[in-house]
Amino acid sequence: MTLQQLKYMIVVAEKGSITEAAKELYLSQPSLSGAIKDVEREAKITIFNRCRAGVALTTEGMEFLGYARQVVQQMGLLESRYIHNETAKQRFCVSSQHYTFGANAFVELVQQFGQERYEFILNETQTHQIIMDVRNRFSDLGILYLSRSNESVLKKVLEENNLEFHELFAATPHVFLRREHPLAGKEKIRLEDLKPYPRLSFVQGNYESSNFSEELFSNDIVEKSIKISDRAAIVNFMIGLDGYTISSGIFPKYLHGDSIISIPLDEDEIMRIGYILNKDGELSELGKIYIKALKQYKEK
Q1: How far apart are CA 210 and CA 7, in angstroms?
Q2: Inter-residue contact 220 to 190 (CB < 8 Å)
């Protein structure tokens, strides 16, 4: 098994197609297919399932690709340092639910790092994808929350993927809405108060359920629901449509300064926000800086 073969496997996984990967790598399709079969034979596992639409990683293949990425990344560091005589390029990746304080903590990480060469990735994505990114070692850590309503399911999924949850802080749920919203004058808001207004939530793709939702009480039936994929859009809908979303209430200025406010939700629930790691992994120095920055936002 060669380093070049590992690079081939990573490209195939990213493209989801041997044909497209062969074009990217300037290889013939039979040559690339042969390389995949050689690696599968040597590893004694099936890494890709073949289908009409292309290829998809098997469960064992996901784990294999996680280790392959680590090997390729470390080899890149070695080549930079000892062959090209360059300062090692540091790589750090976080996959996260859509938290403004998470993005701000990431900015602090970059500012503190201060070196000339780095590759930092903040991937705000769906809950299940966060779990897969950390499991496959694409991301150093993942940021998500547990609550009484989703804990049993998510902890089972984490255990199945050899991941551990580390709590950072607990937060009471808050409702985010525009400053001039009809409910903005209330000290606390109940779920029944929100019924006339559109509920805004983040898309979870194939895992669209309350267990993977970023918002509490997402299993409650509402008449008006809008699902979106990014934080900028959710703010626009709050301002333009009197929409609302339910989140932690941490860092309530939330992208648009004072135009968005947060009000405590008068319901019995807690969001335990934390990070996930592989059980056999530990926080890197960059990870420690990032987690420290996250904790500071809770204090603020």
Answers
A1: 37
A2: no
For the chain, domains (ranges, CATH) are 3-80 (1.10.10.10), 89-170+272-299 (3.40.190.10), 173-269 (3.40.190.10)
- Asked if 90 and 115 count as a contact pair (C-beta separation under 8 A), the reply is yes
The 3 state secondary structure assigned to 178-210 is: ECCCCCCCCCCECHHHHCCCCEEEECCHHHCCC
Is 114 in a helix, a strand, or coil? coil
> What single string gives the DSSP state of each residue in 56-103?
EE-HHHHHHHHHHHHHHHHHHHHIIIIIS--PPPEEEEEEE-S-HHHH
Q: Which alpha helices (H) appear in 216-267, and where do they start and end?
A: 231-241
pLDDT of res. 78 = 73
* Interatomic CA distance for residues 184 and 152, integer angstroms: 34
**Residue-level pLDDT at 147:** 94
User: How, if at all, do strands 174-178 and 260-264 pair?
Assistant: antiparallel
Q: Give me 231's structure tokens.
A: 């934080």
What pLDDT is recorded for position 255? 46
pTM listed for this prediction? 0.75
With a cut of 70, which residues of the chain have pLDDT below it? 77, 80-82, 84-89, 114-116, 251-257, 298-300
Tokens describing residue 143: 């940021």
